[in-house]
Amino acid sequence: MTPRHIHFIGIGGIGVSGIAQLAIKHGHVVSGCDLKSSAITQKLSQMGAKISIGHEASHVAGADLVVYSSAIRQENPEMEEARRRGVPTKRRAEFLSDLMADKTVVTVTGAHGKTTTSSLAAKLLLTAGLRPTVAVGGILREDGDNMKFGDSPFFVAEADESDGTFLCYTPTYSIITNIDREHLDHYGTYEHLVEAFEVFVGQTKPEGCVIYFQEDPVLDMIVSRSGVRAVTYGFSPEADFYPLNISLARCRISFDCATGSEVLGPVVMDLAGRHNIANALAVVALGRRLGLDFKVIQKALEGFKGVERRFQVKYETTELSVVDDYAHHPTEIAATIEAARLCARNRVVVVFQPHRFTRTKLLLDMFPGSFEKSDYLVVTDIYGAGEDPLEGVSAQGLADRVRSATRLSVDYVSREKVVEHLKGRIQKDDLVLFLGAGDITRLSDEFAKSLQK
């Protein structure tokens, strides 16, 4: 790819920031803007990117290409200026696809678990000495980054299905974790979402394979009728890779990994929850398809330190724990609360920030059941993620719906009052779990900091 000036709109976002770093590594001149300064934008500036705060038409000057995230609207002044100047624009995934040209690509997609699974896949290839390029949707705890620039043919990427841009990729190995009723604001109907996954499955290269969770019936149907080469994982011996002797101890999982009648060996990981066993099995399947020795796979899984905002412990004493997690869909919320229940010594207190008005409206009836295993729920203000408010959709309304449909103690608390509210309600040995895909991580930091005073 010939070096040129590339401007990134929304450069502080987790997805765009990673490919901006890759662009710098490829020798491009990089500029970018975001609404506010952050650790991410500061790091990019140190790497040589020209960072601007705010969105102005003048930022596009001199750019040969403008790359933007799905959160950027077409009426953004920099998008409008790029069109006026005749500067080509590309979505984040389209540019990432360009970077993947001529690579052996491993993608991970699915409604839930793709960030952890893609990070595990990256850890596996790195441990095996395969020197991959990596672009995932979370910050790896072991080195504080979401990308790596490798010098081998391998490329590991998280493929985002939320806006349909995962269809930009033609991977060699496709890990698909599951399909759920998510992102219907983009797809319109569940049927259209399923159709998009059908197309994606068919784009896997013939020399590779699809690796998927067999116990998802819709996913199993799609892959089975596609005719593509496939490898399955799940909790049943009917899957190609499955676990035996599962142990779900406090914030640690262990199991014996089996395939057919053969027990490959034990796996122990410092992760919480049954869902992470499935994530690990996907990566075992990938490793075996790549011809890796199981001892290498064991070493990678057991050395994995996790991803920021995936059951991340922010504060812990003998009397209280504070955990931050990205879960925002009802399925993810239920799985994360179940994991928290295994770690908690007393109550699980949940603070939930709904993500987007459209999602809150579409999934309103699914939310109550997802919180049932918690002991006390605080719902705070909806994080709009650039959306305009919808009439009749509110955090108070969600709190009322959960309260009326369950036996839970539920309160709506405005964002600025959450920390003080919690300090008056927590009990000895509680686990306080902050959930959401917005900026609720800052609230978890504020609460943890307040406990240290």
From TrEMBL:
Pathway: Cell wall biogenesis; peptidoglycan biosynthesis. GO terms for biological process: cell division; cell wall organization; peptidoglycan biosynthetic process; regulation of cell shape. This is UDP-N-acetylmuramate--L-alanine ligase. Residues 5-103 form the Mur ligase N-terminal catalytic domain. Cell wall formation. The gene is murC. Belongs to the MurCDEF family. It comes from the Bacteria. Residues 309-438 form the Mur ligase C-terminal domain. ATP binds at residues 110-116. Keywords: ATP-binding, Cell cycle, Cell division, Cell shape, Cell wall biogenesis/degradation, Cytoplasm, Ligase, Nucleotide-binding, Peptidoglycan synthesis. It catalyses: UDP-N-acetyl-alpha-D-muramate + L-alanine + ATP = UDP-N-acetyl-alpha-D-muramoyl-L-alanine + ADP + phosphate + H(+). It is an enzyme of class 6 (ligase). It is found in: Cytoplasm. Residues 108-286 form the Mur ligase central domain. It holds the Pfam family Mur_ligase_C. It comes from Velamenicoccus archaeovorus. InterPro entries: Mur-like_cat_sf, Mur_ligase_C, Mur_ligase_C_dom_sf, Mur_ligase_cen, Mur_ligase_N, MurCDEF_pg_biosynth, UDP-N-AcMur_Ala_ligase_MurC. Its EC number is 6.3.2.8. NCBIfam families: murC. GO terms for molecular function: ATP binding; UDP-N-acetylmuramate-L-alanine ligase activity. One of its GO terms (cellular component) is cytoplasm.
